Amino acid sequence: MINALRNPWTYIAFVVPTLVLYMLFFIYPVVVSFIYGLYQWDGVSQKAFVGIDNFKRLLHDSTFLKALGNNMYFMAFSLIVNIPLVLLISIVISKVRRLRGFYKSAVFVPVVISTATVAILFGVLYDYESGLFNHVLRAIGGDGWAREWLSKPKLAMLSILIANAWQNIGFFIVLCLAAVLNVPKEIADAAKIDGVNGWNETWLVTLPLIRPILFVMLLLTVSGTLKVLDIVQIMTNGGPFRSTEVMSTYMLKVGFRSLELGYGSAIGVAMFVITLLMSGILQRIARSEEVQY
């Protein structure tokens, strides 16, 4: 066994298959998408080379710019609402002594439900006539309080954001809770001796010590909100009046409905570049530092 580990071919045997899969399923699609983005093509007829015209078109495409803005709306909601809520729930659960395992399992249940199921479930809850939300509102204030959640442009995006948060927030809670519970008890006890108690302990002790996990949460949030697709596709398909259109849904419509595969590939490349840049900027600004306990 020791001789095998000293043999460089042992490492090559494990690394090469991984590199091949990485090249095949990640690098190759990105390169091909960029190449297709240089052509005007419907997927059937002869490709016509147009250079970077498809990428220039993105800068003047009002629908793409609106879709990009909706992705940013997704991101802002997740960063301003979801992350603080995750921290609050994680801290509260960490203070609980009884049934902590039950609470951890309860908040994680929505994560294991498929996005299609979540989208259909909330579609039923948002139904104007028979939805639970409108039943509650009618019970409180009558028919005038009922809302067309997915049919009004001003409410549709918020409705999707709530459904998306309900499904994904549990994963971040479990991730954050693990970091909170991993903070050594000795540090918390020392802080209490110094007079740090309650929420001051959370702000001055816990949050600085779980900073690496917070950076991971931010990174996952940024990348996830920029490529969101399925829940929007199922709940509204980008409507009404493109008020919930995101880059992924627009790319599908352009590429597979309008058969503009070249332009659709350009949208995909733009999504990749934007996600890469924002993730890189986030890592640069919030450079992860290993916390020593």
TrEMBL record:
<keyword id="KW-0813">Transport</keyword>
<feature type="transmembrane region" description="Helical">
    <location>
        <begin position="155"/>
        <end position="181"/>
    </location>
</feature>
<feature type="transmembrane region" description="Helical">
    <location>
        <begin position="12"/>
        <end position="39"/>
    </location>
</feature>
<dbReference type="GO" id="GO:0005886">
    <property type="term" value="C:plasma membrane"/>
</dbReference>
<dbReference type="InterPro" id="IPR000515">
    <property type="entry name" value="MetI-like"/>
</dbReference>
<comment type="similarity">
    <text>Belongs to the binding-protein-dependent transport system permease family.</text>
</comment>
<feature type="transmembrane region" description="Helical">
    <location>
        <begin position="261"/>
        <end position="282"/>
    </location>
</feature>
<keyword id="KW-0472">Membrane</keyword>
<dbReference type="InterPro" id="IPR035906">
    <property type="entry name" value="MetI-like_sf"/>
</dbReference>
<feature type="transmembrane region" description="Helical">
    <location>
        <begin position="105"/>
        <end position="126"/>
    </location>
</feature>
<dbReference type="Pfam" id="PF00528">
    <property type="entry name" value="BPD_transp_1"/>
</dbReference>
<keyword id="KW-0812">Transmembrane</keyword>
<feature type="domain" description="ABC transmembrane type-1">
    <location>
        <begin position="68"/>
        <end position="282"/>
    </location>
</feature>
<dbReference type="InterPro" id="IPR051393">
    <property type="entry name" value="ABC_transporter_permease"/>
</dbReference>
<keyword id="KW-1133">Transmembrane helix</keyword>
<protein>
    <submittedName>
        <fullName>Sugar ABC transporter permease</fullName>
    </submittedName>
</protein>
<keyword id="KW-1003">Cell membrane</keyword>
<dbReference type="GO" id="GO:0055085">
    <property type="term" value="P:transmembrane transport"/>
</dbReference>
<feature type="transmembrane region" description="Helical">
    <location>
        <begin position="202"/>
        <end position="222"/>
    </location>
</feature>
<feature type="transmembrane region" description="Helical">
    <location>
        <begin position="72"/>
        <end position="93"/>
    </location>
</feature>
